[in-house]
Design goal:
The protein has one helix at 2-125. The protein is 98% helix and 0% strand. The longest helix is centred in the middle third of the chain and has 124 residues, at 2-125. It is built from one helix and no strands.
């Protein structure tokens, strides 16, 4: 009976050692799990912050695209107006050149008529 008792005591001690080892392993696993949960929470926070930043950047991009579209429309309108004004300036310059040519032609005609009047006056005085 003593021998059986000793064997049971040894088995109990062996089982107790295994239990203690298992308990230590469980404690380490719990600690690791807690660390992993903390890392997961931190990662989740970073993910949410990154998602907010992405949303903000996407909103800014949309705003920038809208602004660019409006500015492109203004530029198109201004270029059309510029082309119109260039056409008007060109036609005005052409009209000015025509008028200048007519003025010169009329001056030549006036000079010729003055010469004819002078010749007629001279002939009359003769």
């Amino acid at each position: 009976m003593n021998k059986a008792l000793e064997e049971r005591m040894e088995r109990k001690e062996t089982a107790q050692k295994k239990y203690d080892a298992a308990q230590d392993r469980l404690d380490r696993i719990k600690l690791t799990a807690d660390q992993i949960k903390a890392q997961e929470a931190a990662a989740q926070g970073e993910y949410e912050e990154s998602q907010k930043m992405i949303d903000n950047v996407a909103k800014e991009l949309e705003d920038t695209k809208a602004t660019q579209y409006k500015e492109t429309q203004k530029l198109f309108e201004l270029r059309a107006k510029q082309a119109s004004l260039i056409g008007e300036i060109s036609s005005t310059l052409s009209a000015s050149r025509n008028l200048t040519a007519n003025i010169n032609k009329l001056r030549v005609e006036e000079d010729r008529q003055q010469e004819l009047l002078y010749n007629a006056d001279y002939s009359i005085q003769q």
